[in-house]
Amino acid sequence: MKRQRLVAIYRRASFSPQQHRQNDRAILDSVVGNLLTRGWEALRIDEKDVEAGRIPHGELYLNMCQGAAASELLSPIEGDVAPIINRPTAVLNCHRHRMVRRFNGNGVTFPRTVLLPAAGGLPEGDVLKELLGEGDTIWLKRGDVHAERTEDVLRIRADELGGAMASFLERGVPWVALQRHVPGPVLKFYAIADRSFFRYYGAQTGPHAPPPPVDEAELMRIAFSAAECLGLDVFGGDMALPSPDRPVLIDINDWPSFAPYRHEAAAAIAQFAHHSATVTSPA
User: Fold this and answer.
1) 208 and 173 within one domain
2) Is residue 105 part of a domain?
3) In a domain, 106, yes or no
4) Is residue 101 situated within a structural domain?
5) Is the pLDDT of residue 17 over 80?
6) pLDDT digits 0-9 by tens, 125-162
7) What span, in angstroms and rounded, lies between the C-alpha atoms of 272 and 96?
8) Helices marked H in 19-159 — which ranges?
């Protein structure tokens, strides 16, 4: 009997800054290893292969691409050729300018965020005042893809905004997102859409210490609602806790590294992927 082939697509290095590069490869390697034990054969390619149009046939795709070019080229696979985790439309939805618009009016607890062209000048005074709230700082983030470097996500004062936006423009970042700061401790979370895996920990204290108090049911509701809104299967993100019963989503990512939980996460993702391929394969 012919073995089914999975195609594992590794993320472009520029989308895995600093220590994330090794961790991102490690989680996909581990998922592939789990699927090999289930009888799959694997072909490994990189995001740059997809960008060049080199997309081999497979019965299952594990997709860590984050760039728009690769996601657009992978789109024909979605829904027609084979299961693809994560789907390219979901990856594109995670680009900040799309994500903010999708969250508006969809019940996702998310801080006030305004998208602006980096070359478009400062926001109007009333808008800036609303974003600052009672504080004196604001978050400035690149408005397209996730952070590629430390300077892509900044917490700054209002009087620093003009210079910071100019620096984004100089680096070729066309859009920026201005986001209201949410006070309180931050939780990092990792999850799979079928809820077979959900873990979280305090960003300040780390995965081996007790997390800050939180309403776990509300934490999960927001995380899975956001993922469903974007169409994500494998995801992670950050929640701020202005109070334990009121978590607020401040970021969500397609297929993070799951580094603190790699072994158990890889097994759960492999099971999810294997099941997805099994239920969608032709009779």
Assistant:
1) no
2) no
3) no
4) no
5) no
6) 788 888 888 788 999 998 877 666 778 889 999 889 98
7) 26
8) 20-36, 47-51, 68-74, 88-93, 96-103, 125-132
Our count of domains for the chain comes to 3
Tell how far CA 81 is from the center of its chain: 24
Over the stretch 264-280, which tens digit does the pLDDT of each residue have?
999 999 999 999 998 65
Q: Is 104 contained in some domain?
A: no
- The Cα 239–Cα 252 span in angstroms is 9
CA distance 255 to 115: 24
pLDDT at residue 16 greater than cutoff 50? yes
Question: Model confidence at 123, in pLDDT bands (50, 70, 90)?
Answer: confident
Note whether 231 and 160 are same-domain residues.
no
Range of the domain at 143: 112-179
The candidate with the shortest Cα–Cα distance to 111, out of 255, 261, 241, is 241
- Condensed to tens digits (0 to 9), the pLDDT of residues 22-75 reads 899 999 999 999 999 999 999 999 999 999 999 999 999 999 999 999 999 999
Same domain for 169 and 130? yes
Report the alpha-carbon distance of residue 172 to residue 70 in Å, rounded: 19
How many contiguous H segments (helices) and E segments (strands) does the chain have? 9, 12
CATH code of the domain covering residue 175: 3.30.1490.20
Average pLDDT of every residue of the chain: 91
In the numeric block, the tokens 């859009």 are attached to 175
Structure tokens at 164: 């910071």
* 3-state secondary structure (DSSP) of residue 67: coil
Are residues 63 and 128 both part of a single domain? no
Tell me the two tokens of residue 215: 């309403």
